[in-house]
Please model this.
Amino acid sequence: MKLLGTLGILSIGLVLLTIWLLPGSFSAKGTPSDLEVTLARFARHWATPSAFRDANNPIPVEPKILADALHHFADHCANCHGNDGSGKTPMGPNFYPPVPDLRDPMIQAMSDGELFYVIHYGVRFTGMPAWGNGEPEKDTESWKLVHFIRRLPHITPEEVRMMKTMNPSTQAERDEQEALDRFLAGEDFEPAAGHHH
Ligand code: HEC
Model:
């Protein structure tokens, strides 16, 4: 049985390798084929340690917890995933594979433990970063985010509006704010060439 599983994973690996060795296939342009998506998901499902796959979310679902997670998502995840989880962000579609719609049944079908594992360890060869760093508080944060991902298919326009106020601002917006603050504080504007002091 164990041998069959190993052979299965090896043959999936062989097919993926063949797809990846085709000319141009290390570019991040384009969309993965259905075959590549299915095989990669299947391989990842089995590559997730079963202790994680079957783990239950240790954090209770409470309004306070969901509010925390909403804030955290708006701050750390929304620039790629969008406040509503749709993945429709300026960057989202340019990853290979593209940022998925987290409301999609395919994602919602993942177990809590699998979602935790993705958030905590990231996904190799994709744009999805790892967020865990071994501190227990980070574990808690990741489990809270799992609750929030479950909430995304039912997110309300009011929640999305609130999240917009929590999104990190861009460098340009911060520069503009700083210039405005200085102007209001009665300081002169720096010349456009900008020397720093
Ligand atoms: C730099 C961009 C970026 C950021 C920031 C980011 N993600 Fe992702 N995320 C991705 C990409 C790209 C994928 C697609 C990976 C894949 O298809 O396997 C992804 C996939 C996922 C998935 C689905 C995994 C799967 O099996 O398809 C979940 C869940 C997820 N991200 C949660 C989060 C959470 C929660 C955060 C914030 C803590 C976050 N992401 C921050 C880029 C990002």
